[in-house]
Amino acid sequence: MSQDYPETKIDTESSTDKATDASSTRREFLAQSGKVAAAAGVASLLGNLGGWALSYAADKEPIKIGILHSLSGTMAISEVSLKDTVLMAVEEINASGGVMGRKIQPVVVDPASNWDLFAEKAKQLLLVDKVAVVFGCWTSVSRKSVLPVFEKNNGLLFYPVQYEGEECSHNVFYTGAAVNQQAIPAVEYLMSKEGGGHKKFYLLGTDYVYPRTTNKILRAMLLAKKVPAANIAEEYTPFHHQDYQTIVGKVKKFAAGGGACVVSTINGDSNVPFYKEFSNQGLRAEDAPIMAFSVAEDELRGMDTSALVGHLAAWNYYQSVDTPQNKKFVADFKAYCKKNNLPDGERRVTDDPIEAAYFGVHIWKQAVAKAGSIEVDKVRKAVYGSEFLAPGGKIKMDEANHHTNKPVLIGEILKDGQFKIVSRSKGLVKPEPWSEYTSPDKGCDWIKHQGTYQKK
Amino acid sequence: MKVALGIMLLGTASLLGAGQAIAAEGPRASTAAPPLSLIDRALADLSSGDQARQDAAANVLIEQGDSSLLPKLEEIRNNADRSVRLAIKPLMDLLKNRSNLASPDADRRRSAAADLGSSGRPVVMPWLEAALAGEPNRWVRYTLEESLALIRLASDDPDTKIKAAAKLGELRSSNAVPALKELLQQTGTDATDQQKALANAARAAIGQIDIWASWANAFETIFRGISLSSILLIMSLGLAIVFGLMGVINMAHGELMMIGAYATFVTQECFRAYFPAGLFDYYFIAAMPIAFCVVALCGLILEATVIRFLYGRPLETMLATWGVSLVLIQAARVYFGDLTSVVAPSWLSGGAQVMVGVYLPYNRIFIIVLSILCVAGIYFLLFRTGVGLRVRAVMQNRDMSSCLGIPTRKVDAYTFAFGSGLAGLAGCALTLIGNVEPGLGQNYIVDSFMVVVTGGVGKLMGTIVASLGIGGLNKFLEPSFGAVYGKVLILVLVILFLQRRPSGLFTIKGRHADA
User: Which CATH architecture has domain B215-514?
Assistant: First the structure.
């Protein structure tokens, strides 16, 4: 049982899969699926001859975990790195003896940047593969699409990307930043004397849920801080927008007289044309620095950075964080990519979502060890308040609201696509899924309340 | 922090005797070597924690220091706590900008002048005046004058203020508008004559600046319209030939652009690897013909393997080429990955300032010129050469041409290859604007079809006029409607237009209209 477990498992899975498909259709398909299953069985037997099965040798059967990141389609550019990171963390844990004496066995699926497919694959992971936990999703829409699946089947999802908040699920742990751990401190920094004492804010984003919600919160916050409404501009562009001439012209007019900055939630491939146009029209980071929430080392790796130097970004981690555990993490990640012949190998870089994905696996492992079980309800309790020495410094899972207490770092983009850290929060920032500016009456608490509750 | 402080204290102690003998009064000429000890003591004072001493020290350093102090300041700053860092930052900026005023690079000088102006410190005025006296570049001079006037506007003397306001009006400085408006607001009803005069000067200046700004804005909008049109045009030219003249709906046309962009990327990497660094800037010139030829070859292969079996069957062509496009996208993703960047050559980055407030980026000017050259080239080829004559003959009446001995199969292949090559050239040009990524073609293909269909299938002139119209209209609408609704509105207008004139702007008339 122990040695050939993975193969046998794949075999049964494929046959049951086919069988369920077929039973709903015609009988001849049933016969066909039987053939397929038989073929798969033969293949798996052949596979047994391979030596790689030895790596799974363990006394008990392994714990299965799911990885739900797009490996193809538009989001592959960002999500593939997270899949690699989770696999690396799993390899680390297995090398140190696994958890509760059991190895971890990852099940990787590809939802192909297709939101419906995310829900389907999540269902498959929870019901067919029966994984103990899932690490996955990047975009908010993919998370929203799998949320009902996890809640209905009491699954557990670790979500590693910064997001717009206003969510408080019992079945998700958010290891990325909430708005008050990225956008709000970033704008506070821009307003501070150290950050240049900016008075005019141009909120610029791609037209979808994350920028719109973030900017709604930022606008409420700026108004609360007595910034006149005339000094706040808000503008959206379609996905894949390439022509930023008019917008940069508007920014230039807006920035005349100084004291202006741009807060950018522009996503993906629109960033390069935007920054290029910005510098080509003679605007400098000194005239109006661009503070970005979606530009990290992994994206900069493929950009011509000359137009971006001196602009800012806000994250909870940078590859340049100077801690011993981060040096090891970066070296390990590069070595892992090289060893597994991943594209770009040693030239790969780490960034905030990669770190969040990495420590998410470790937080889960710690919780399993503490709970002595992989049952979701027990693991969840063990996660509350647990701490981990992440590459970027110690982080702490919140006691009640399923988010993560993290440090906030403001970085300046350098020529080589890395960041120089120019500001760092004092200690960890407590996550607030419901922003105090837009939803002052709402809170998120799974200990004293049932998730989202009305404050009195 | 402690270490740095210790070093500073040591330095101060050793030179204490000499330092006391020299008083720190008034600004000195920057050429005179400042007394070492004074500077050292000021440096030590910076991290003293006492606000008054810090300020005094900062003033001494601003007046007497130069950029040679920067490494030391940086060291103090790195070890200091927040309040000291805050105190040192503007100091370092001032010293850095002051030394940059003498930089050989005009952009640097200008940038420094602008920063010194926005620092608002009267102490920088002599520096700016000195720089102004010896400044050869028109725009650097402009910025120096603007900075000087901005600082004077913030002075206490009403006469200086009035003069500064008038000067800013003359300079058409949009940077001065907030300050001038503030002046206007400060003037109440019970103002003195002098204040009224100042308010009038400010009002006049704002008027001048506003009129100028609206002209500049109009000019810029026109340029943006032309620039967007040129991009639309260069994208659509290939399609106008393949779809317009040959009637082949090539859904992989966008991917041919993508191949052109990747050809540019590969050329760049080759230049980086095999040529001396001095030649790197010229890679783009080599990349254009390379992109054209590579993509033309791809077109030739595509034509020979897929399209020639499907002439006259538009639906099948569409499906087949769409399949090809998916294959090409995934192939690019697998081979190149998602992360590739083309570095614009230095002669195509930045922009030219043509008048106050109007900046024309070089890359856009380049694309405008390139698209004009392409149009000229196509017209020459189609209407002035024997090959063009045969192409037109085949497109108008294939059977007759064949009867007259024109090798129509060959002509088809060459025409398709030529149209593809133009797509490659467009892909090459697009690397100047945006990213190189597998999905690049998808971003542009819809716009290209829109231009060709609106212009009228089969008419090059239609494509040119349609791209000008759509590009211009887009840039005209965008300022007031925003990018999202601007685009929506354009699409609605195009649909309405095509409802009225299904065959587009320019229609083919005469006997072969329905051929």
Answer: Orthogonal Bundle (1.10)
